[in-house]
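Chapter summary example: a protein plus guanosine-5'-diphosphate.
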Amino acid sequence: NKKRTYYKSWRVMRISNGEKNTGHTGYDKKQSGVDNCLKFKSVIFDNSYDSSPTRLPLPQVAFCGRSNVGKSSLINAVLSRKIAYISKNPGKTILINTFLVNENFYLVDLPGYGYAKRSKEMRNRWKQTIEEYLQFSNMLFHIFVLIDSRHTPLKSDMEFIKWLKFYNKSFSVVFTKTDKSKQKIIAENIKYLEKEFGKITYFLTSSKQKKGLNRLCEFIFEKINIV
Ligand code: GDP
């Protein structure tokens, strides 16, 4: 019974804060700070799923993006430890990895989409697994869509965002590798997205230079409601 009340209270919080616009754009003042990320004190690799974990018992935030976008690096930077596997040769298995943070919420690492070398059958399976998770997960509070800041968002990125908007999901865009891109290009990419989708919440990050992470971590806390 105690357990049930606890879960219920998460739901209530979600509803009451669901529409709160806590998004910020760009770097914050403390560009290289990671103070907020250090609040993620305990991180435990929880599980790998080859089907949708729609019934996780605690709130979740998910990270998603195409292979090689810098997702593992960003998760490691956010969690201040090398816990997500960094690969230069994206694996063939489609697994959803979950990390239990502060025993309070899950950070969910969703497999990269739009990886050209995957067979059509695998891409379809990915789509089915991810969409099932995103659509039916009981306590998924926010989805971070990672986009390489150096390149114009790809068709697969656009389709994914379109899908999230259609299902009215709480999401934001995280531009990665900003240490390698020009401001003008980033501005163009933001414009490209906003032309299609209207105002979006976005973050500019560099895992390498630890930029934009403080704001991102603060945002995760706000979304999960752990202050
Ligand atoms: P994933 O496939 O999306 O998990 O991407 P990884 O985290 O494995 O990163 C893919 C490649 O991009 C690796 O060679 C990383 O070293 C590189 N990378 C990731 N983040 C950054 C960043 O912030 N800056 C730069 N310059 N390179 C990055």
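Key point: Strands lie at 43-49, 60-65, 96-101, 105-109, 140-148, 171-176, 202-204.
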